[in-house]
Amino acid sequence: MNLDQSKIPQATAKRLPLYYRFLQNLHASGKQRVSSAELSDAVKVDSATIRRDFSYFGALGKKGYGYNVSYLLSFFRKTLDQDEVTKVILIGVGNLGTAFLHYNFSKNNNTQITIAFDVDESKIGTEVGGVPVYHLDTLEENMPGDTPVAILTVPAPAAQSITDRLIKKGIKGILNFTPARLNVPDSIRIHHIDLAVELQSLVYFLKHYQGES
């Protein structure tokens, strides 16, 4: 199928890895087919949304039968480029960065942190979770040229200047765990993940929207 991925809504694209992970679990358990209602219950997305998401990719299922797990898994593996390893660099080997390096997307074989940078001399030249740590001053000379994604876990004041350097080296996407809102060209994709804001938001909803879905 000749699919223009750019026409897939961003909300749908964000849900695809969630579907893929659940399908992996289903396949591992030996289940051969699944309904949109079962998917809905598992991933906490309403079944109408799931059917609409899947409809962007053509006829993935049959009415009254549901979806073939093996076929869906194969389809989304190709759609998400699961057979191609994406190399990632990490900037900032503090507590959060160290946790990332030890985890290193162990349940997602197509994404791998291959190199990390920091300014702490006690960490330079060591390996954390099997990933070598270099001094941030050597970013330009040691960053692999085929690395499209960076994870930022640095102090907020340093985030923009590091981002500028990453862009000059060809980075296309940044997962930003700092509170800083980064200024980047339109061609660069930024996903901001502010854990403090997310926690405050959760507490607010618990206090004011109890009982509402």
What does this structure look like?
Helix content is 41%, strand content 19%. It is of the alpha/beta class and 213 residues long. It has a seven-stranded mixed sheet with strand order 6-7-5-4-8-9-10. The longest helix has 19 residues, at 10-28. The radius of gyration is 20 Å and the shape is globular. The model has no long low-confidence stretch (mean pLDDT 86).
Task: Give the oligomeric state of the chains in this entry, treating copies of one chain as homo and distinct chains as hetero.
Answer: single chain
Strand order across the biggest sheet?
6-7-5-4-8-9-10
Low-confidence stretches: none
Q: What is the CATH top level name of the largest domain? A: Alpha Beta
Return the CATH architecture of the largest domain: 3-Layer(aba) Sandwich
Helix content: 40-55%
Written as H for each helix and E for each strand, in order along the chain, the element string is HEHHEEHEHEEEHEHEEH
Major sheet description: 7 strands, mixed
Distance between the termini: 37 Å
Mean pLDDT: 86
Number of strands: 10
Itemize the secondary structure elements and their pairings:
Layout: H1 10-28, E1 33-34, H2 36-43, H3 47-55, E2 61-62, E3 66-68, H4 69-79, E4 86-91, H5 95-103, E5 111-118, E6 127-128, E7 131-135, H6 139-142, E8 149-152, H7 156-168, E9 173-176, E10 189-192, H8 195-208
Parallel strand pairs: 4-5, 4-8, 5-7, 8-9, 9-10
Antiparallel strand pairs: 1-3, 2-3, 6-7
Helix pairs in contact: 1-4, 2-3
